[in-house]
Amino acid sequence: MKLLKAFAAAALLLISTACGGNNKQENDMKKGKTLIVFFSHAGENYAVGNIKVGNTKIVADYIKERTGADEFEIIPEKSYDMPYSDLTKLAQKETENGELPPFKGAVNDIEQYDTVFIGGPVWWGTYPQVMFTFFKKYDLNGKTIIPFTTHEGSGLANVVEDLKSLYPKATITGAFAIYGHEVRSGKAKVEKWLESMGY
């Protein structure tokens, strides 16, 4: 009798473990396929000096490593490699004029993605204008959008409001901001944010 009870308990444990695994698989399937879209500025940056890899790219790579998501980097056709003071003036001009600078490349089959992380530095109160060129080209309504920014004091600025205005039928959630000067030693902070969303 004792042997029978032990066998039954072991079988129950195996079943509950298997169900737990299935629940995790179901949760992963609910998230669907994920894309990370980002613009990152190398060269002279405020607080971190002249850098070869932009702050936002480092965060995007952390996300990719954790989630296995695809990446699309928005690379402008024109160069933004200039002294920081000149860049701020150009960013102001582009924002005030509502410019839509062209970028290189394209996302193949945007429809396959259910979740899109969108990241960039904060330039003049929002994402850089070249990102708005991307937003105009691709309809992300109906998707889950997770915004993130790198900054030196602006936080999320107006990016959440701008995305809600552009994509009123999208679910905008989990917005995250990190100081640019923290990025290189801030992997754990990014991972904690991702973990809070189930990644």
Descriptive labels:
199 residues; alpha/beta; Rossmann fold; six-stranded parallel beta sheet; two-stranded antiparallel sheet; 6 helices; globular; disordered N terminus; FMN binding; Flavodoxin/NO_synth; signal
Architecture blueprint of SSEs:
Blueprint: H1 2-31, E1 34-38, E2 43-45, E3 49-51, H2 55-67, E4 70-73, E5 75-76, H3 84-97, E6 103-104, E7 115-121, H4 129-137, E8 144-151, H5 159-166, E9 171-172, E10 176-179, H6 187-196
Parallel strand pairs: 1-4, 1-7, 7-8, 8-9, 8-10
Antiparallel strand pairs: 2-3, 5-6
Helix pairs in contact: 2-6
Describe the fold and architecture.
The chain has 199 residues and is an alpha/beta fold. The protein has a single domain (33-197), classed as Flavodoxin domain (Rossmann fold), CATH 3.40.50.360. It has helices at 2-31, 55-67, 84-97, 129-137, 159-166, 187-196, and strands spanning 34-38, 43-45, 49-51, 70-73, 75-76, 103-104, 115-121, 144-151, 171-172, 176-179. The strands form three sheets. Strands 1, 4, 7, 8, 9 and 10 form a six-stranded parallel β-sheet that branches. A two-stranded antiparallel ribbon has the order 2-3. β7 (115-121), α4 (129-137) and β8 (144-151) form a beta-alpha-beta unit. The protein starts with a helix and ends with a helix. The model is unreliable at 1-29 (pLDDT under 50).
